[in-house]
Structures are given as structure tokens and as C-alpha cells.
């Protein structure tokens, strides 16, 4: 193996593959793409520890608090909406580089803000990066990973997200004792991982499917020689080329046609269920929820760190199971366990029973259930169910729906807890878990072990 122009090269040019992939190369490029998830998790979760301080600094009501916390998600929705077309035009890799720059600008800007409007403006900028990365990172991994590895490698993106959340929780805990301006350091600290992400992206290539879409067949072959599990690279290239049907773009109207509409709606609804079942009310507001049980600020932050640790461990479980058990079984199991956990937390608040860490235990069970199922599996599912021709645009729309659902949950949580109470808020999320279970039972199709090209026969409605 030789190294040329900063890229790994197998030295093969005969169009044949011995059936062995370059595992180290695949892990490297997938890991770098997944690092976008770490910034995603950090950027969205850092607000959790800052809530008491920004509430006091900016004199926020419960409505404005919901807006301050949830404003990033409007940026996420816009970023997801724009990222598909930009990723098709300029490439997956370049879009991730732009995301790294937006992450850094957001953290530094929010940390330096002296008024709420400026703070929200930088949160929106960070949201653009998060929303774009949430779409482009899984797509990059799905397009570069062999079929039998794809579930695990895309699930690593969710692992990076939850690691980012945990890093944000630790950052909050570390900076919590620095006085009145501690929240500024919490936000500014995300510049460091953003710079690392930017530098790592300089060493990875573009995906072969994007290269083929742009007519750069020779460069695509070079990458496929390192990642393909087929005996003939030429046959794989031909299969990928045929999946684009000699077109390089598709309109929104075509995407909603009879052919693509069923799979698009499945993607949108699964994405929405990942959010409306309540996960980010826990991720963003965990310290606030724990303080309701009567503990102090430091203890609530420490219990929140416990949530971050469980989130990581459960995501590792998902990585181990997603290509063995399959997507559908994990999604159904997750909806069931999350619903039970939310009902238990709701009952604890209804009867004001906070002894023996029972609220913490059921919240940890809820987060573990999410991390091992919906948290990782939804990103895997969205990255693989859409046909090559429409993947970018369809994934943009599904991710847009996900962020809008996230925004709705985040904006309404402080209002719901004030007017309904924490218990009935949890019961509402539990009911949505039950609805998600029924939908996934009837509509979600299993995809494990199939190539991206084979997926088209599973989902498309041929006229």
C-alpha cells in the first residue's frame, strides 16, 4: 500500500477486488464523519447546564426560556433543508467542513453575547451546522460503508452524539463554579472540538457515490477498491450508475410522486417519532427536572452526567445489535421500554415520591432504552432507506421534520410543566411512545444486510 497526495491508495487498477476490504481505511473515514455527531451532541446539550445562569442573566420567562433553548433547532431545520442540495452540488466532505466552521463560530459567539438577540443569533448559526451535519454525516457513512458494516458504522454517529452530550455535561460541571460568567465558558469551550473536526476532515476523501453522480468515475473506483466487498469493481460502478437513472437531480414535486412518496413518508414519520417521544426534554432539561426532586445544583449536574454515561453505554449496545437483531425489532422494543419508563417517572411526580433515587433510575432506563434503539437506529434507517437518486433531498426533508419536532418538544416543555405539571408532561410523551409502537409495527420494513441499491426494490412504488 502506498500513500499519495495525502490519501491512502491500494495500488490496484485492474477493476477487481479480492473480496477483502481495507477495514482500517473504512473505520478512519467513517470515524471522522461520525465526529460531526460529537459536535452535534455538544452544541445541543451545552445549554442544559447554562439554563439557570442565562435565565437570570437575560431575565427569561418560561416562554422565552423555551425559545432560548429551542432556537438552535430552527437553525437545525434550516440547515437540514439546505444541506441536501448543497451536499449534492459541492460534496459531502465540503459540507462537513462548513459545519465545523459554523460550530466554532456559534460557541464563541454565544459565549461573548451581551444581549438575548445576539445570543439567539449565534444559537441559530450553530443550528445550521448541527442540522447540516445531522444529515450529511450519516449519509457520508452510509455511502462509504459496506452493506454488512453499514448499520454499525452509522450507529457510531449516534455514539458520537451521545459522547458529545456527555462531554458537554462534564464541561458544564467543570465550569459551574467559575462565577457569574460561567455560562460563557460553557459555550465557548466547543471551539476546541470544532477545530479538531475541521483538521480531521482534511484527510478523508469524498464518497464514491457522489463522485459517480458527478461523473468522476476514476476517483470513485480508487475509493471503491478500498471499501468494496464485491469481486468486480466495474459491476458495482455500473450498478451505482444505473441507480441514478442518468439524472443528476430531482425536483420536490418528483420526490412526492407516487414512486417515492411512500418511503419519504416513512422516513419523515420515523424521524418525528424519535423526537416527540420526549428524549430532548430529558437531555436539555435534566438538571431542571432533577432539581424538582429537591436536590441542589451540583447534585443535579452530577446526576445529569449519569444520564450521559448511560446514553453512551446503551448506544454501544445498539452498535452491537443493529446488524444482528435488525432495525425493526429494536425500534419496537425501544418504544415499549421508553413508554414504561415515562409512565413510572410521571407517577413519581404525581405522588411526590423521590426517595431511593427512583426518578433517576427510571430516567436512566428511559435514556438507556432510547440510546439502544431509537437514538441510533433511526439515523441508520434514514441513511439507508432512500434511493441513491433522491437520498440527499429526501434525507433533508426527513431531517427537517426531525428538527421541527425537536423544536416543538423543546419549546413546549417549560410551558407544559408549568401548566400541566411534570407528571402529565411525562404521560403525554408515554402516549406518543405507544402511537410510535403501533405505527412501526405496521409500516417499518426490515433493512439489515441489504445494499443501498437493493433497498430500492424494497421501498419504491413502481408505476
End-to-end gap: 47 Å
Sheet of most strands = 2 strands, antiparallel
Instruction: Quickly give the structural class.
Output: mainly alpha
CATH class: Mainly Alpha
Number of strands: 2
Q: What's the helix count?
A: 20
CATH architecture: Up-down Bundle
Q: CATH superfamily, please?
A: MFS general substrate transporter like domains
Q: Give me the side-by-side strand order of the main sheet.
A: 1-2
Radius of gyration: 22 Å
Strand content: under 5%
Unreliable stretches (pLDDT < 50, length at least 5) are 1-19
Give the proportion of residues in helices.
Answer: over 70%
| Whole-number tally of structural domains | 1
Looking at the structure, the CATH topology is Growth Hormone, Chain: A
User: What is the H/E order?
Assistant: EEHHHHHHHHHHHHHHHHHHHH
Query: How confident is the prediction overall: mean pLDDT?
Result: 85
Query: What sort of overall outline do the alpha carbons produce when their principal axes are compared?
Result: globular
Could you describe the 3D structure shown?
It is a single chain. This protein is mainly alpha-helical. The protein has a single domain (21-204, 244-459), classed as Growth Hormone, Chain: A (Up-down Bundle), CATH 1.20.1250. Helices cover 77% and strands 1% of the residues. The protein has helices spanning 23-45, 47-57, 62-90, 92-112, 116-144, 147-175, 182-188, 191-201, 208-213, 217-227, 233-243, 252-255, 261-276, 279-292, 297-321, 327-350, 358-385, 391-419, 422-443, 455-459, and strands at residues 2-4, 7-9. The chain has a two-stranded antiparallel ribbon. Strand 1 and strand 2 (7-9) form a beta hairpin. This is Major facilitator superfamily (MFS) profile domain-containing protein. GO terms for molecular function: transmembrane transporter activity. Keywords: Cell membrane, Membrane, Sugar transport, Transmembrane, Transmembrane helix, Transport. The chain crosses the membrane at residues 25-51, 63-87, 94-112, 118-141, 153-171, 183-204, 263-285, 305-323, 330-354, 360-382, 394-416, 422-442.
Amino acid at each position: 500500500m502506498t500513500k499519495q497526495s495525502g490519501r491512502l491508495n491500494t495500488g490496484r487498477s485492474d477493476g477487481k477486488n479480492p473480496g477483502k476490504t481495507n477495514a482500517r481505511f473504512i473505520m478512519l473515514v467513517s470515524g471522522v464523519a461520525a465526529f460531526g455527531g460529537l459536535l452535534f451532541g455538544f452544541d445541543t446539550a451545552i445549554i442544559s447546564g447554562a439554563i439557570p445562569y442565562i435565565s437570570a442573566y437575560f431575565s427569561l420567562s418560561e416562554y422565552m426560556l423555551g425559545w432560548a433553548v429551542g432556537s438552535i433547532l430552527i437553525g437545525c431545520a434550516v440547515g437540514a433543508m439546505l444541506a441536501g442540495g448543497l451536499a449534492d452540488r459541492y460534496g459531502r466532505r465540503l459540507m462537513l467542513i462548513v459545519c465545523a466552521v459554523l460550530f466554532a463560530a456559534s460557541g464563541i459567539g454565544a459565549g461573548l453575547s451581551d444581549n438575548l438577540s445576539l445570543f439567539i443569533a449565534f444559537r441559530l448559526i450553530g443550528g445550521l451546522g448541527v442540522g447540516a451535519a445531522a444529515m450529511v454525516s450519516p449519509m457520508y457513512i452510509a455511502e462509504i460503508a459496506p452493506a454488512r458494516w453499514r448499520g454499525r458504522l452509522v450507529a457510531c454517529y449516534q455514539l458520537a452524539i451521545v459522547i458529545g452530550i456527555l462531554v458537554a455535561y462534564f464541561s458544564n460541571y467543570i465550569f459551574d463554579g467559575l462565577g457569574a460568567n460561567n455560562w460563557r465558558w460553557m459555550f465557548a469551550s466547543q471551539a476546541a472540538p470544532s477545530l479538531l473536526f475541521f483538521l480531521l476532515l482534511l484527510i478523508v476523501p469524498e464518497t464514491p457515490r457522489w463522485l459517480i453522480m458527478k461523473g468522476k468515475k476514476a476517483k470513485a473506483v480508487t475509493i471503491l477498491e478500498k471499501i468494496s466487498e464485491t469481486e468486480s469493481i466495474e459491476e458495482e460502478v455500473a450498478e451505482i450508475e444505473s441507480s441514478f437513472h442518468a439524472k443528476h437531480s430531482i425536483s420536490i414535486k418528483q420526490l412526492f410522486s407516487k414512486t417515492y412518496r411512500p418511503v419519504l413518508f416513512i422516513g419523515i414519520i420515523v424521524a418525528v417519532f424519535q423526537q416527540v417521544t420526549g428524549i430532548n426534554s430529558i437531555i436539555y432539561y435534566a438538571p431542571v427536572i432533577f432539581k424538582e426532586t429537591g436536590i441542589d445544583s451540583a447534585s443535579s449536574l452530577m446526576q445529569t452526567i449519569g444520564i450521559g454515561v448511560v446514553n453512551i453505554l446503551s448506544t454501544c449496545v445498539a452498535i452491537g445489535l443493529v446488524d444482528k437483531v435488525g432495525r425493526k425489532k429494536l425500534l419496537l422494543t425501544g418504544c415499549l421500554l421508553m413508554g414504561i419508563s415515562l409512565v413510572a417517572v410521571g407517577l413519581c411526580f404525581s405522588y411526590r415520591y423521590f426517595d431511593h433515587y427512583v426518578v433517576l433510575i427510571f430516567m436512566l432506563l428511559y435514556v438507556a432504552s432510547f440510546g439502544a434503539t431509537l437514538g441510533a437506529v433511526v439515523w441508520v434507517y434514514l441513511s439507508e432507506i432512500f434511493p441513491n437518486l433522491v437520498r440527499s433531498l429526501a434525507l433533508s426533508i426527513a431531517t427537517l421534520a426531525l428538527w421541527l419536532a425537536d423544536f416543538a418538544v423543546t419549546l413546549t416543555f417549560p410551558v407544559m410543566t408549568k401548566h400541566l405539571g411534570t407528571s402529565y408532561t411525562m404521560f403525554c410523551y408515554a402516549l406518543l411512545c405507544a402511537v410510535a409502537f403501533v405505527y412501526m409495527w405496521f409500516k417499518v420494513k426490515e433493512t439489515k444486510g441489504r445494499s443501498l441499491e437493493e433497498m430500492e426494490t424494497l421501498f419504491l412504488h413502481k408505476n
